Every structure is written in structure tokens, then in C-alpha cells.
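Reviewers of the previous submission asked for a worked example of the structure-prediction workflow described in the proposal, so we include one complete record here. The input consisted solely of the amino acid sequence. No template or homolog information was supplied to the procedure at any stage.
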Amino acid sequence: MQNWRIKLSLFLNYFVFAILLNSVGTVILQVQNNYGITQGSASILEAFKDLSIAIVSFLVASYIARIGYKRSMLLALALVIIACLLMPFIGGFAMTKVLFALTGAGFALIKVSVFATIGLVTSNKKDHASFMNFIESFFMIGILTGYFIFSAFVDSADPTSTSWLKVYYLLAGISALAFLLLLSSPLDESSVKTPETKPLSQDFIDMFKLAIRPLVLIFVVSAFFYVLIEQSIMSWLPTFNSQVLHLSTSLSIQMASILAASTAIGRFIAGIVLRKIHWLLVLIVCLVLAAILVLLVIPLASKLNVTSINHWADAPLVAFIFPVIGLLLAPVYPAINSVILSSLPKRQHGPMSGLIVIFSALGGTTGSIITGHIFQAYGGQTAFYFSLVPISILIVSLIFFNRLQKKTTADVLPDTLPVN
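From that input alone, the workflow returned the following C-alpha cells.
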């Protein structure tokens, strides 16, 4: 397979950051147990992760081709290796904030570089869309793996135990392996190199010009609300399982993995389905079904007996069914990302990837903080009913996005990926 080593490296890089970034739901639960942090205060961890992603993306996205995609990814991996090694030694809520800030900064470099690199290692729009879905499905496999890795280090018998911090030694080792694989993988970036005579300020101006295009504006609205939905559910599902469904701490984390597994399966299936069916039809159907699922399943959480549950076999039906929403939400993000990137010239993939990361991060932070405060004030059921609002907005924005994308496609640029 052509470019197989760099493609494998991209998968492993995404896998590492999937575990670290999406451990925020688990860590939110643990800091409540270990450090006596309230739900509203714990929600700030999402902001440390996502705002650092947004800030770093804003600062470097327009210059990423000058820095180099491979060099940027190596720097990102080095940051998380250092953060993971420090976490068990220092501990505490403050160090947890630092961990997510460094992880977010690293992910900004990784995601912009990975999205831009996909255009270099694929040959047409269909290949681009398929690879985008597969790499995003592997991201969900990383999240799924992370739930089980973290739950293995959690002491359910003593919720206040800090033994779970030892998991970061393992994560540092995986990150080091990813660093070495990337270091030894060749990547030809000559086609996107910025001329040395072009001033740095012009790169920044070009990104702003890109951001105000109508197609890009409606895209970032769509990306913002999708990630708002995804992160509001993903970050608070372990707490929902523990405090609303009365599962033990370890089981709450493990059962949250159903969401990651269903999302991974959904994106893998989407990688096949989107080759045959128009992306808008697939996404609208999925979002409508997701809204129906919320309305039908969340009420089941109000009919539970208040008893501690320690085993999968004893878990209530809602703990199994609600996370399947990931299967329905799964195709949205990679599909719209592929549509916008494959509609632009390769030279704009770096800046566009930066805009994707910035608004995704802002959406994730907004969703988690709003959900955390609703959870604290009105309870977990009301917090998850909140997802119906952004789902409705997203359906409308996708319809407008499709209309603008059709107009843009009519004026194909010369170095846009060819249609196969």
C-alpha cells in the first residue's frame, strides 16, 4: 500500500491523543472523588483542553506548512510524553489542568497536521472521504481503549485512591512508541511548502480570508454544534452512569466505552456507505434518529432503584442503549470535514484544518461547561435532554452547508482533488 508507513503513523498519533483527550470524562469523575471538586468546577478541565487547542491552532495553523507537518507532530508527541511523566509525580487538580492544557496544545499540532497530510497521501475525493472516516473511527477505538485502560487503574473499593495516576506511565510509553514510528516514516511535503519570499503576515491574512468565505462560515457553525453535542455527552457520560444510574466508579467508566465503540463502528460503516449515498441524506437521517433516541431512552433513567451496581449484568437497560447514540452521530464530523477539505486546494488544507480544530475546540468547551452546570443545577437527565437543541440547529446548518458546497463545486479550482 502506497504511503503505508506514514498512514500507520497517522493512525497511531490519533490513537494516543484519543486516549488522552477523551479521558477528560473519566478524570472529571476522579477529581470529584479525589479532590472534592464540584461538577461545575470540574467542567473547567474541558476548557483547559479545548481552549489550548483553539489558541495553539489559531497561532500556528496559517504557518503549519512552514513549520512542517511531520515536525509539528513530533513536537506534539514530545509535549504529551513530558506531561504524562509529570502527572503521577505532582498530581492534584492544578497539575490535571496543566496536563490537559499541554495535551490540547499537542493535539492542535497533531490534528492540523494530520488533516493536512491526508490530502498528501490520498489521490481523489472518494479516497479522501474514506480515509477521513477510517482515521476518525480509529480515533474512537483509541477512546474505547482508553476507558478500559483507565478503569483498570481505578480502585472501585476506594474512590478516593490516587492509584489511577499510574496510568500515565503507560500512556507516556505509548506516546514514545508513536514518536519513534513517526520519526522513521518518510513524508513528502514539497507540494505544500510556502515560498520563502512570502511574508509571515500574509499566511495569517490568507487564513482570515478563508474564514470569511460563506461556505467556510456555515461549515464552522456545523462543526461547532456537532462537537458541542459529542463532547457534552462523552465528557459527562461517566458521571451520568455513576450519579444517575448508580453504577460503581470502575463500571461507570467501562460502560462509557459503549459510546466510543458505537461511534467507531458508525464511522467505519460510514466510510463504506458514503461511497454510495449522498452525505447529506445520511447525516440528516442519523441526526433525526439520534433525537428520537434521546426522547425515548433518557426517561428510563427516572425509574431506577437507588442501589450500587458493580457488574455489567446488573446494569439498567438505559446504560446500554443511550451510548448507542454514538452510532448515529458518528458519520457527521468526518463527513463534513472531508467535504470542506476536498472542496479546497491542497495549499489551503493546513489553514482550513486549523479552522476546523479551533471551532471544534470551542464547541467542545461550550458543550461540556453548559452540560456540567445543567447537571449540577437540574440533574443528569435534563443535562442530556439539552442535546436536542444543538441537534436541531445542526440539521438546519447542514442543509445550508450542502447548498453552498454545490455552488462552490461548480467553480472547481485547478489543484482541488479530482473526482474519481
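DSSP finds 19 helices and no strands in the chain. We consider this example representative of the routine output the project will generate in years two and three.
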